[in-house]
Specification:
Arc Repressor Mutant, subunit A, Tetracycline Repressor, domain 2, about 0% strand, about 250 residues
Length: about 250
């Protein structure tokens, strides 16, 4: 029987093993004196990802965009996974860390500001939401994840409830951004109208869907969904020892 092996941050001699997230789990390599730096690489990678999406990002294209040879590029990053992990963490730096003053000391106001900023960053970089399922271990991500967990802890969530509340908020914002970004990337004029018309023509099969079609304000819809989620969290916070009924599946 094969025994499972622990997840390691690098391959032989500290080199990347091509596993997403491993860039954060191995020691940084000392840079040579050269105009190309990891920061420049990440900045260029984000620009390429914004322009063309993750599917077109290659190490060769990135090197060409930087006007550097592949050998120079590989001194700083070993694989495309390294580049994507670094780029993801870089865009999280755009998510402003709420202050106690801005939230007026209210946990829900601080979380709302964080989650809203998180969504805005992902929509500015529409490739990002689809990649967030990979290990997210960079400092920008972890600081904001720590902030979210700390705010929920101050609200009275502990243990499994704390983890579940954080997951609910994270999954809501990532799922919403992924859906919005996907529609925007379709880019075909009238795509939403065509989808709505498809449902209207089948109103007998989908009466509730057909009755609730109409112009959609994505920002307002997201904000209202967050309202509902936060209301549910407020109703259950601090209820240590109470166990809600499990879903029937």
């Amino acid at each position: 029987m094969n025994e499972s092996k622990p997840f390691r941050g690098g391959g032989r001699d500290g080199r990347s093993n091509g596993v997403p997230g491993s860039v954060w789990l191995r020691e940084s390599r000392a840079y040579r004196d050269a105009p190309l730096t990891r920061d420049r690489i990440v900045e260029a990678a984000v620009a390429l990802l914004d322009a063309e999406g993750a599917g077109r990002l290659t190490m060769r294209r990135l090197a060409e965009h930087l006007g550097a040879g592949p050998t120079t590029l590989y001194w700083h990053v070993r694989t495309k996974d390294d580049v994507v992990d670094l780029a993801l963490d870089a865009i999280f730096a755009e998510v402003e860390m709420p202050t106690a003053e801005a939230g007026q000391g209210q946990w829900w106001a601080e979380i709302r500001a964080l989650i809203t900023g998180w969504r805005e960053a992902m929509l500015r970089h529409p490739w990002s939401a689809a990649l967030i399922g990979r290990p997210m271990l960079g400092p920008n991500v972890l600081r904001r994840t720590e902030f979210l967990h700390a705010a929920l802890t101050r609200a009275g969530f502990t243990g499994t409830d704390l983890v579940a509340a954080a997951h609910a908020l994270a999954n809501y914002v990532v799922g919403s951004a992924l859906t919005e970004a996907s529609w925007r990337q379709i880019g075909a004029p009238g795509a939403r109208d065509a989808a709505d018309e498809h449902i209207r023509e089948r109103a007998g099969d989908y009466p509730t869907l057909a009755a609730n079609l109409g112009p959609e304000d994505e920002d307002a819809t997201f904000a209202r969904g967050l309202d509902l989620l936060m209301t549910g969290l407020e109703a259950t916070r601090g209820s240590a020892g109470s166990t809600p009924p499990r879903a029937g599946y």
